[in-house]
Specification:
heterotrimer; A mainly alpha; B mainly alpha; C alpha/beta; A: mainly alpha; MetI-like fold; disordered N terminus; C: alpha/beta; 21 strands; 35% helix; 25% strand; disordered C terminus
Chain lengths: 283, 316, 520
């Protein structure tokens, strides 16, 4: 009886983190692709070979070649740098902006809170992708601009989470106790609010990175991000679309790359989320 | 429900506030664009006499002080005038005319599909064993992790080109609508299914569920008479997000499937820096958001009587 | 023949053995009480009688007979006929135990439909009848309302009506009055007692011996899943045999108001004068005045929403009053800007209600106390001294809140409040979230600290038993005003205000004083 329970318990302990571990492995692989794509693939992602155009997967080209005879595998691996820089960079920007505005709203008094929240209300009325498109219209297209556009569009979401969490902490008994001890407000924010906001923020940012990776590739797909010759997943999808009827591989593999990243960050994020709620739920 | 109706003016005021903010943002965007608007109107590489340039400047009212331009734009908007396209020289309303219906059709179909997917998945898996549930949550995870436009491309590749099951493009009848609507609906349905399932699980663990079971109610009674209604609440809360996802997704879906619609217009406008069209579309989406939220605010008390009469926070 | 016979009941959740070899029986017309603290397994045992211990539980029993039928062999279908039909369940809080999205009438009607006790056409009529029987005024109108629109007492009556609807022979009432204010509590208990008088069996689950003494014929005391003592209620309460029962009885015994402390100097430490505070249109405090002298304990009692906590926050200088003033040892306090108040804050400290939210979940005990000892020359020694003062040891230093019990968390919160060596401790419901035996320990600790350190205590509680035990002087608050004030003896033995009298009459307590007032 107890032996059975032990086995089940161990199974649960070992069985649970398989998916998150796999997700971390996939992300680590992509990190290598970003830092040193040469380690993973030998072929030059930009080398054209008109003779070998639109070759199906196999042989020297495991993922086939595109319309200019470029190696799709190599382009997918090298494309990680641009695609993931946009995705992770935009999330970092959104988190930084959200943290600043959210903390300001939660701890800066009622007037400021009202002001920040009303602006948030307006911004939240725009779909993130549309807001990003508006920013791109203003600042123009290109990788850096797309990163900024998506990052700015993500700020309201993070600001709302930070404000909500921060207010919960600020209204808690321990912050009241700190006030009764005469701890100054800025110190309370650094000591109690920030660390308690960080956990949920990390979870949301991890899951949110999936969204920004998708949005970034979407803008490139629309021709607003990375300029044509550069390897970028969204742009590759856009190119490959024209050869759908004859060469399915050109649009399939870049898409799978996006899915692998988004799936991994989502699994990892939900794992972190589960862990934090379980940890806090303990009596 | 007179008490609920009394909230309408306040909600409307809040909505107008949001729209005013959106208009202001749009105006700022218009004037933050670097470079001379006249160049945009003229198009790239066109030489024009200073007289023509001055004429354009007058036509678009660009010579006036910013404050005057701002107030004029607000006044125009209040009259339903969305401005004039730089690229086409036509009133924006004329540019958008005829594009609204296909997008709305796509969005409504996708919403219906997403809700169907979400509730069907949740009801079929509620209270089931571990295998069924992990399978369902795996599929939900996949649905939210796949970029919808890529899904559209795959659908085209395999269903249309490979097997010729569905028409590849165009706007010809329900068959042509199915694939675009489905690709738009899947990620939304995935999120909603997860939310509904979580709420069903949570509700069936609450004390009132114990009461229902202690009365001799079956799990089916509990689901149909009690918890399903609870699960409608978080879905209503997400309606703003749904509108956003639909509009954002429409931009991509329409491009992939070469369908007419507002999304296509937007992409063209962004590419050619046709700011009046972009801002008009942004305003339109904000208006859709405001209207949907207003409807949801009215629907909330119908679902949850606890909200009747009490002044509740803005549901976003 | 007994309605219910249980022998050797065991419930396990994985490795946790929640109910251990429990046996009891209930005859018709009889009331049996299962008494225990949180986690004692009493609710789980009650749910086992309905086959509702949940999918994660393994339930076994040598005998489980419900109304003469052997329930150990029941399948899902048989259980459903028992639930509601033979055994009805009333849970703690009707606000959450009735579906909040459905009308009261629909909730009461559901068992009628499920068990087909009356024909469909008569259901409405029967619902109104049932509501009337449990003492709900204007039952037609109430049936059309939602649970949240009813007062706590009416809601609980509606829940009872729904449990009685299919005419069960046994009613299981799990903490049926815990969520109610004391005055309402008494009425609901009377209603349950009446149901028993009509021949129904009643199984009462409670942590409150006062409630049990009021209506139970027999009582079984549970601890860690096992019955430690059982017998006729009066006998058990008069002469408890098991040490744990003795602790419970001791903790809830009615005591005479304690001897007033020897307030040596009669020095006024804190003076609250005509303080008012409103939130929008809601008045939280109106013209509240009182003084706290060095070394004394002032008890502030009132039901939920009476404004007690607002007064505590204003006294602490954490909330600015709309009008009126607070002075600290004769000097301005509420009128000071926070910058000038901060250096004086060490003189009065707060012990918060919820011992979980009062500690940062990320902080270890050592860090919690370190925050309260900024720049202390010998922080470690002082930390250990503080822990010792509240009965904790160095082994607790590295623990985080979730690794501590409720009582230990409250001890840490008290240690933190003592760290800056205050003269005044403001305690806002410091024991209301704790079990009776733990309450007892914390109250002893506070009393001990008051004497050893010469503290003045402003002690806020909704519980007259607690207030009676610890206070020298008592203030009674109702609807944002102080309605009565005096020494504990005056207020609690000879109340002048009708509200205080109602409050006192409604407190469920054990008959007669047990032992001497506790001054350990």
């Amino acid at each position: 009886m107890s032996a059975l329970a032990q086995v089940a318990g161990r199974g649960a302990r070992l069985g649970m983190p398989v998916a998150p571990a796999l997700a971390a492995l996939v992300l680590a692989l992509w990190a290598v692709a970003v830092a040193a794509p040469g380690l993973l693939v030998a072929a030059d992602p930009d080398a054209t070979d008109v003779v070998a155009a639109l070759r199906p997967p196999g042989g020297a080209h495991p993922f086939g070649t595109d319309e200019l005879g470029r190696d799709v595998l190599s382009r997918v691996v090298h494309g990680a740098r641009l695609s993931l820089t946009i995705g992770f960079g935009a999330t970092a920007l959104g988190v930084a902006g959200g943290l600043l505005l959210g903390l300001l709203a939660a701890s800066g008094g009622r007037r400021l809170d009202q002001l920040v929240m009303r602006v948030q209300d307006v911004l939240l009325a725009f779909p993130e992708l549309l807001l990003a498109l508006l920013v791109v219209t203003v600042v123009g297209s290109g990788t850096g601009n797309v990163l900024v556009a998506i990052g700015v569009a993500a700020v309201p979401t993070y600001a709302r989470l930070v404000r909500g969490q921060a207010l919960t902490v600020i209204r808690s008994g321990y912050v009241e106790a700190a006030a009764a001890l005469g701890v100054r407000r800025p110190l309370v924010v650094v000591r109690h609010v920030l660390p308690n906001v960080a956990g949920p923020l990390l979870v949301l940012a991890t899951i949110g990175t999936g969204t920004t990776v998708i949005s970034g590739s979407a803008l490139s797909f629309l021709g607003l991000g990375a300029a044509p010759p550069a390897a970028e997943w969204g742009a590759m999808l856009s190119d490959g679309r024209e050869f759908l009827a004859t060469a399915w591989w050109t649009a399939t593999f870049p898409g799978l790359a996006i899915v692998s990243v988004v799936l991994s960050v989502t699994v990892l994020g939900r794992h972190l989320q589960g862990r934090s709620t379980r940890g806090e739920g303990r009596p | 429900m007179p008490e609920t109706l009394r909230l309408v003016p306040r909600r409307l005021a809040a909505g107008v506030l949001v729209l005013w903010g959106a208009a202001t943002l749009a105006f700022l965007a218009l004037h933050l664009v670097p470079g001379d608007v006249v160049d945009t109107v003229l198009g790239p590489g066109t030489a024009a006499t200073p007289a023509l340039r001055e004429q354009i400047r007058l036509d678009y009212g660009l010579g006036d002080p910013l404050a005057v331009q701002y107030l004029r734009q607000l006044a125009d908007l209040a009259h339903g005038d969305l401005g004039r396209s730089y690229q086409l020289g036509l009133p924006v309303s004329q540019v958008l005319e005829g594009q609204v219906a296909p997008t709305v059709e796509l969005a409504l179909t996708a919403t219906a599909l997403a809700l169907l997917i979400a509730f069907a998945a949740a009801v079929l898996t509620a209270g089931r064993g571990r295998v069924v549930r992990s399978l369902a949550s795996g599929l939900e995870l996949l649905a939210v992790s796949v970029p919808s436009y890529w899904l559209g491309i795959l659908g085209l590749t395999f269903l249309s080109y490979r097997f010729g099951l569905l028409p590849a493009a165009g706007d010809s009848g329900p068959a042509a609508l199915l694939l675009p609507a489905l690709t738009l609906a899947l990620p939304i349905g995935g999120v909603l299914a997860r939310v509904v399932r979580q709420e069903l699980d949570e509700a069936s663990g609450r004390p009132f569920a114990l009461t229902v079971r202690a009365r001799g109610g079956t799990e089916r009674t509990l689901l149909l008479r009690h918890t399903l209604r609870h699960a409608a609440l978080p879905v209503a809360t997400l309606s703003g997000w749904i509108v956003g996802s639909l509009l954002g997704g429409a931009v991509l879906t329409e491009t992939v499937f070469a369908r007419p619609g507002l999304g296509r217009v937007l992409v063209t406008a962004v590419t050619s820096k046709d700011v009046p069209v972009v801002t008009a579309l942004v305003l339109l989406s904000a208006a859709a958001f405001v209207v949907v939220n207003l409807l949801v605010d009215l629907a909330y008390p119908v679902i949850d009587p606890r909200l009747r009469g009490a002044g509740t926070g803005v549901a976003v | 023949m007994s309605l219910l016979a249980v022998e050797g009941l065991d419930v396990r959740f994985g490795a946790v053995h929640a109910v251990r070899d429990v046996s009891f029986s209930v005859a018709s017309g009889e009331c049996l009480a299962l008494v225990g603290e949180s986690g004692s397994g009493k609710s789980t045992a009650a749910r086992a009688l309905l086959g509702l211990t949940g999918p994660g539980a393994r339930t076994t029993a040598r005998t489980l007979r419900v109304d003469g039928r052997d329930a150990t062999a029941f399948g899902a279908r048989e259980w459903r006929t028992v639930r509601g039909g033979t055994v009805g369940l009333v849970s703690q809080d009707a606000l959450v135990s009735l579906d909040p999205l459905r009308r009261v009438g629909a909730e009461v009607a559901e068992p009628l439909r499920l068990h087909r006790t009356v024909e469909p056409g008569r259901i409405r009529e029967r619902v109104v009848e049932l509501l009337r029987e449990v003492g709900v005024p204007e039952p037609e109108a109430r049936a059309a309302q939602y649970p949240h629109e009813l007062s706590g007492g009416l809601r609980q009556r509606a829940l009872i009506a729904s449990a009685l609807a299919a005419e069960p022979k046994l009613l299981v009432a799990d903490e049926p009055t815990t969520a109610l204010d004391v005055t309402v509590q008494a009425q609901v208990l009377d209603l349950l007692a009446r149901a028993g008088a009509s021949g129904m069996g009643l199984l009462l689950i409670s942590h409150d011996l006062g409630v049990v003494a009021r209506i139970a014929d027999r009582t079984a005391v549970l601890r860690e899943g096992a019955v430690v003592e059982s017998g006729a209620t009066a006998e058990l309460l008069r002469s408890p045999r098991h040490p744990f029962t003795r602790v419970l009885v001791e903790a809830s015994a009615a005591r005479p108001p304690r001897e007033p402390s020897a307030v040596s100097s009669a020095r006024r430490l804190l003076e609250v004068s005509a303080v008012s505070k409103a939130y929008g249109s809601r008045t939280a405090a109106h013209g509240v005045s009182f003084a706290l002298h060095a070394g004394e304990t002032v008890g502030l009692v009132g039901e939920s929403g009476s404004g007690k906590s607002t007064v505590a926050r204003i006294a602490m200088g954490l909330l600015a009053p709309d009008s009126g003033t607070v002075t600290l040892a004769g000097d301005p306090w509420s009128a000071l800007p926070e910058r000038r108040r901060r250096p004086l804050r060490h003189r009065l400290q707060l012990v918060h209600q919820d011992p979980y939210s009062s500690l940062d979940p990320r902080f270890t005990v050592a860090r919690v106390l370190a925050e309260a000892l900024p720049g202390h020359p010998d922080r470690r020694a002082r930390t250990l001294e503080l822990l010792d003062l509240v009965g904790l040891g160095p082994e607790h230093l590295g623990r985080r809140p979730h690794q501590l019990s409720g009582g230990q968390r409250q001890r840490v919160a008290i240690a933190r409040a003592l760290a800056p060596a205050p003269e005044i401790l403001v305690c806002d419901e410091p024991v209301s979230a704790l079990d009776a035996s733990v309450q007892d320990q914390i109250l002893r600790l506070l009393e001990d600290l008051r004497q050893r350190l010469g503290l003045a205590l402003l002690f806020i509680s909704h519980d007259l038993g607690v207030i009676r035990r610890i206070s020298d002087r008592v203030l009674v608050m109702k609807d944002a005003r102080v309605v009565e004030e005096g020494t504990a003896a005056e207020v609690l033995t000879d109340p002048r205000h009708p509200y205080t009298r109602a409050l006192l009459a409604a407190v469920p307590s054990l008959p007669g004083p047990v032992g001497a007032p506790d001054r350990a």
